[in-house]
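Hi, here's the filled form for the chain we discussed.

Project: internal
Contact: R.S.
Residues: 889
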Amino acid sequence: MNRFVCFLCFAAIITILGGGVGCSRQHYRMKADREVYSILREGNNDPRWRIDDYQIAPDVTSRMFDPYHPDEEPMPQDDPTAHQKMRWIAGMQGSPEWYEHGCTQNVENPRWRQYLMLNEKGEIPLDKDSALELARLHSNEYQTRLENLYTTAMVVAQQRFRYDTQFRGFGHLSYTESSDRLSNNATLAIQRRTAAGAQWVAELANTVTWTFTGQTSWQMDSIVNASLTQPLLRGASRKVELASLTQAERSFLYAVREMVLFQQGHYTRVVTGSVPTGSGASGGTGIYGLLREQIQIQNRKQYIIGLEENLNRMLAMFEANQVTDVTQIAEMRQDLLSNQSTLLGQVNTYQSNIESYIRSLGLPPDLNVSINDPLLEQFQLSSPELMLLTEDVVTLLAMIRKKDEPLPGDFRERTKDAVRRARGELIVLGQDLDILQKSVPERIEGLKSLETVLIERIASGERIDPSIYDINEFETRLNDLRHKDIPKNRDRLRAIFTILDMFANTEEAELREMIQNRSFDEPVQEALKMINRTEAVQTPGLGIFQQQQDLEEISLRLETLEATQDSPVAKTSEQIRREEQRAEARKIISELQRRDEYREWIRHVFTEFQNELVLLSLMQTRTRLESMTLVPVSITADDAFRIAAEHRLDWMNERAKLVDAWRDIDISADRLKGVLDLRLSGSAGRRDGNNGRIGDHSELQATLEWDTPLNRFAEMMTYRTRQIDYQRARRAYYMYVDSVNLELRNIVRNLQMRRIDFEINRNAVRIATTRVDVMQLRLEQPPGRGGRLDTNAALQLINALNGLLNSQNNLLNTWVQYQTQRMLLDYGMGTMKLDDRGRWIESDVMGSAAASAPTPILAPEVVPLQIPVPFLETPKLNRRYVEEIDVRR
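And the returned structure, exactly as it came back:
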């Protein structure tokens, strides 16, 4: 028993000294990283598909960052029921070693929220750059792609290791109680594989035996074995032997290119929501889509504001008996309710899309974000601040119109604030006008190039309105804006500011006296003339009738009507008309008797203020509309296809994969051969012991091993399958080429169509703006007392406002689609480049009509092959195969 205990101690010592427990987890992890990163650096030196700063470990600010030691990961929170299976299973107690690294409730980085850049409202401001940065930090899809590239490099490392010199050490220690013998066998082996398929192995085996029965003795046997195996038929060529390593290296090259393609597609998806063919990125809503929805919601709100104000005007005209058709008001109310419901749906969808979008970036949907990007500010055809100001003025005007309720207590402060904000919007309009002036040369060049395209299409029979590219009309519109429409609107607003300043800076009692006595200073008098309210100086407060009638004159007229005696039996049409006149006169007298001139003045001026704010919004719309430009793309589909053939990375991969399929034919054909291996082996050694006997033992052996190809059924089927696979790969390749050709042709065609459509929609917005302007003026100048508004006025106004809303949205959609197609074209041609932050660097090649090729990106110098590679334009056909084809025919 004592000897057995000594044996166990000896075995433990040998295990420790022999490194049986191996190195630490950290050692192997870091060694694997060194191997893989070395391969990544080696395969990442081509500027056409270089990946900068590749790291598989997430950034410390990322939600994916693991704060725990990767080789000592704590147990995450487990399901309680399932966890019992680890503690006690089938009546046996589980291992306590599961808890040696501790437990944690954190699956994500517990500190990642601390690194988010928030604004003063606690929101994450999102534009295309910040969204891309967040996606690179937190996107699970992006991280998975990085890890896939890492695992592909691991395959290369494993294949390369097969051709390295490899060492192995192994042995065993045994004790036999019956013979009281202790034996230790140890072997050290070295082996290597060559590119020609040969394998050689050398082993040094050493055995020491101690015998403790009788007289203690020991014996040591040492022997050196060496063998060399060289295939002569199957597996004898480098083509076959190096196939796996070659495929691993080529697949790694494909993976690097695919990673670059994914980065480009990832940018396109984050920004536009569209996914280029072959990028591997998943689709969804892009930042462009969210901005588009945001502006469409703003357009809808502006539509509702205009509809509410005009509904109030229609109600006032209905009270004045200038609108008798109740259906007009009902139609307007119905449209208002319908659009309010639509707005609620738009806002709800927008919020859902925001949450889906931030989740696609790898972030939880409960984060508060604000979407804003200056790129689409040009499609805010009227500033959001002006829209809010108009809303506030409409709200205040509604309070003013409630004659039975006092003015709000902060009326003067709200008036001052409205004037201040309106003055700021005039400054904004001046800035918009400056931007328009700077964009004129670019607009004219764009119209000239568009004219060239459209003349060709018109010559082919298409009917296109020539006004969309007419430079003279464009210049006429600019002159009207600069010298007539904007100055008129600006002057009227400044006149209103003068009157509103008087309201805001004068006490009510003093202002009432000024109105009653018409004692206004000269600037106010001039302002009243400017806004065409000179009648208000004489008898203000009769805007609901649109005629100034003296109370005494109306009363006298009523007395005359009442003095006329009508027959009580049968009323003539004349008597009926007189009764209507009496009723109308009584209504007018009632209104005049209970009117408050001070309140009517305020109502009139604020109504004019609201009207001019609407016109200011229309001026902004027209100015910003004319300053919009598109980056022209004049490349032809044929040039784009030719460039793609040279520069598309996935096209390079497809070519190479076709050769892979072709290589598989030869590799599978090798297995049709018989096995004929030459094996040379030898050994040399000695025996030694305590008796002093020494002897040499050496031998050399040559062996020829073969396996006749009498049964190659499975190999035959595999070979034929590889031939069919190659034919499928050929067809798939040229179908892929056709798909790229079709894709590029569609993109180029869509770009040209969107460019024309953009000008058409610009024209549509311009016409819709004019329609709204005309309808607003018609309501501002309703028919006189006794007259009636056109029965179609409400419907015409709804159509005008709705037409403006639709044309604005169509213009925005067209621009977004054009920008998306430009990006897809750059990707589709293989010329898309990203900067070090993953942002798109726009290519100049798309704007070149000649487009011979983009600026060449040269690969590193390649050493030419020493073995000439013949390339046959017309390969020679095997005579036997030709005869076989003839027989089949």
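Let me know if anything looks off before we file it.
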